[in-house]
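Kindly review these tokens for lecture notes.

. . .
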Amino acid sequence: MLGNFTYCNPTKLYFGKGALDGLNAELPKYGKNVLLVYGGGSIKKNGIYDKVVAALKANGKEIFEDAGVMPNPTVEKLYEGVERARRAKADLILAVGGGSVCDYAKAVSVSVNCEEDPWEKYFVRFEEPSCETIPVGCVLTMVGTGSEMNGGSVITNHKAKMKVGHVFADEKIFPRFSVLDPEFTYTLPKYQMVSGFYDIMSHIMEQYFSGTDDNTSDYIMEGLMRSLVHSSRIAVKEPENYEARSNVMWTATWALNTLVAKGKDTDWEVHMLGQAVGAITNATHGMTLAAVSLPYYRHIMPYGLAKFKRFAVDVWDISPAGKTDEQIAEEGLSAMESWMKELGLVMNITELGADESMLGDLVNATLVMRGGYKVLTKEEILQIFKESL
């Protein structure tokens, strides 16, 4: 393994059927005023809203609502949430929803007491909070981002044509607690469900495809990927299969709670490509990743051939007998492509609303990362987007 590291993850998880009861243990730790953050209202249709509100009232909380968090939270919505939190004098922000709601709650948390423009401070200059923050708790209803157990937050600025993620370093930005009940994910539409599945896979791969040392984290990630492939196939056919959905939920959390990144360089260029597509088209996050992944991985495969060969053999069970390393590696990516199509993922950015006229904006919106096997040039980014159309 490479280098020394410090690892701390302060988020307390309540996992499984009836995990919402964990609120009764956590809520007494915080003040009276709770900002309840959620999305478009699906939690009111499936009954989760009523359960959360009942728990808040049972614990004597004053509830202030911040609804309407969109799948790609905007900077305008962030400014609105900051004002709501200030008016509520919030002691706790409780996010109920998927990763976007959790991301948004963390962005509000670090911005309420910030005297500067939070977009400029956190998502342009990537500075850390220098002000008091508000504790965040999460009740998860969609899996994929891992936001329930990390310090990451992604905000979209349509005027700047940018979608930017900031992984905050300070452990106080992590959710203090998260409730993970796999049954809360049953009512998700298939499109959203499989989008989340690929987001999980992408998180793992973008940490896996870096480095050449013998690293324990890589062995963990291979197990996570195998588990995800197995359980996702079951979940697509049986959306209420508890074992499959619980395994996927647990894999999503471990894919991005910062554990498997330890001792490694990490890539994250697929996320930069996908977030550029999201910034321009407002498409669903996991689908943007799926649409750009194969052109990107086929482009960098020659620079990390040994790891791509290992991926093929150890994750996809490709037989290496009588084949070159290049053939083995390509068979692995082809096996992944077949799995993606089996799930029903979007495989090109045209289906997400992109076209050739947007290529310049897409390239300009793509941040260049330096942790992977190949640092992309602008020309290479343009070619990858062309192949993704």
